[in-house]
From TrEMBL:
Keywords: Membrane, Transmembrane, Transmembrane helix. One of its GO terms (molecular function) is transmembrane transporter activity. This is Major facilitator superfamily (MFS) profile domain-containing protein. The chain crosses the membrane at residues 5-25, 71-91, 103-123, 135-159, 171-190, 196-217, 260-286, 298-321, 328-347, 353-374, 386-410, 416-442. Belongs to the major facilitator superfamily. SLC46A family. One of its GO terms (cellular component) is lysosomal membrane.
Length: 469
């Protein structure tokens, strides 16, 4: 059977199955802690009743918030280190072993986590078993490995810089569209049938996408690229050795200006991811808190509206790229979008404003595909796996540290100002803004390749010239 060079269906189904359960994690943990601390069932008919000041259970409210936040912290910390190591090894080694390994293994890990969650929910086991299942699933690489492999897959297929930017943005858009559909479905699923059916549906979707990835998705790395550097003259080398050599060669073979540009772009990518993910990760807990006290239906609609940023960001990248807007300006607009939204979110106290405040953040995903594309054009084709391994490693590490820091800050400040973490997120966006200004002054050297007869005049002017001369 002839395979297809289409990784988008894999990303789409993976996004749907993952976001079908991701919004449930905090809600499920929140309800279990509520039942443990109050010795009563969670009020599902009207969530606002638990927030009333004259309610005898209102004194437990802040404690439940703290315990749920700390549980998220523990889960993230226990799964970070294995996922980081596997991401570096697999995505870097995919330059030689092929990209499909970075897609298939994370799918298996996610399926294990989903089935574990279903087991805990169905048999009402101790929720701390979820920490162990998160650790086990991280041994298969997790989301960072999956996305790193998919972006490297796209980089293999696209030679043109504009096509690469648009197709990478298309992956982000695919995540947002299916995640939005799943988020809306989740609320009604929980209201009608409880937590078990969403987990079963997610597991079935993951089995389907796993079959597609194994039997239909075609491999892009059929042989070692012609510009790859042999490690020791032998046809094969260990994954660890190849990973170390690949990352080293990615920087060593580049010119001094390319190395500086690559490091600055990585700094923008990771610092922006830290600020953005840290703030977004606590929106569900903030919505469960008083005075909002959202139901699962409202949380589903809120999550769906939040995921529309993937679609609007894709449209933004497409339109701005077509109009010739410099890529650094596109990144700037995305960072300002996040800063504005987080500042408004910190002082939002009503349901209407909680929906409205998401509007300024509609362009918040734009920096990620643009920065990935810019970095991809700086290095040679044989080093794409090493690049996306580094990006996935730093993204995973940054996001894990970010979630830990923001959850700790939220647990410490929820009693006196729950919106503090959103102000902190907006303030931290100043770091990528400053580095972006430095890049705008010095300019970005794109696609520097050590090929004897390869002119580099194909790159877009907006990538090579400084914004400020």
């Amino acid at each position: 059977m002839k395979g297809l060079f289409l990784v988008e269906p894999v990303v789409a189904l993976y996004a749907f199955s993952s976001f079908l359960i991701y919004p449930l994690v905090q809600q499920y943990v929140y309800r279990r802690f509520w039942e443990q601390l109050t010795n009563t069932t969670y009020p599902t008919a009207d969530n606002t009743s638990r927030c009333l000041e004259n309610n005898s259970q209102s004194s437990y409210h802040e404690e439940v918030q703290k315990q749920a936040s700390l549980f998220s912290l523990y889960t993230d910390l226990f799964s970070t280190l294995p996922s980081l190591a596997v991401t570096l090894l697999l995505v870097a080694y995919s330059d030689r072993a092929g990209r499909k390994i970075t897609v298939v293994l994370p799918l298996i890990g996610t399926l294990i986590y989903t089935l574990s969650f279903l087991t805990v929910s169905y048999f009402e086991l101790n929720i701390y078993w979820l920490v162990g299942s998160s650790l086990l699933s991280s041994l298969f690489g997790g989301l960072s490995t999956f996305l790193g492999g998919c972006f490297a897959y796209i980089a293999d297929l696209c030679a043109d810089g504009r096509q690469k930017t648009l197709r990478m943005a298309g992956l982000d858009m695919m995540i947002g569209l299916l995640a939005g559909v799943a988020s809306i479905t989740t609320g009604y699923f929980v209201r009608a049938a409880g937590f078990n059916w969403p987990f079963i549906t997610s597991a079935l979707c993951q089995c389907l996408v796993l079959l597609y990835a194994v039997f239909i998705l075609e491999e892009t790395v059929g042989r070692v690229p012609h510009d790859a550097v042999a490690l020791d003259g032998t046809p094969q080398s260990s994954a660890l050795r190849h990973m170390i050599s690949g990352v080293y060669q990615m920087f060593a073979r580049a010119s001094r200006r390319s190395r500086i540009s690559l490091i600055l772009l990585m700094t923008i990518f990771t610092s922006f991811s830290f600020a953005y993910i840290g703030g977004i990760s606590l929106m569900t807990l903030y919505e469960l808190n008083k005075p909002l006290c959202w139901t699962e239906i409202l949380i589903g609609y809120g999550s769906a509206l939040s995921t529309t940023v993937f679609l609007t960001s894709f449209v933004g990248v497409s339109v701005f790229t077509y109009c010739g807007v410099p890529q650094l300006v596109i990144v700037l607009m995305g960072i300002v979008s996040v800063m504005t939204g987080m500042l408004l979110l910190a002082f939002t106290k009503t349901t209407f404003l909680m929906f409205v405040v998401r509007v300024p953040m509609l362009l918040s995903i734009m920096p990620f595909p643009v920065l990935r594309s810019m970095m991809s054009k700086i290095i040679s084709k044989s080093e794409q796996g090493a690049l996306f391994a580094c990006l996935s490693f730093f993204e995973n590490l940054t996001n894990s540290v970010s979630v830990a820091v923001f959850n700790s800050a939220y647990a410490a400040t929820v009693a006196w100002f729950p919106g503090f973490i959103f102000l902190m997120s907006a303030g931290l966006c100043c770091i990528p803004l400053f580095v972006l200004g430095v890049v705008g002054v010095i300019g970005v050297e794109a696609a520097v390749k050590h090929r004897e007869a390869a002119p580099t005049g194909e790159d877009e002017p907006s990538d090579n010239t400084p914004i400020v001369s």
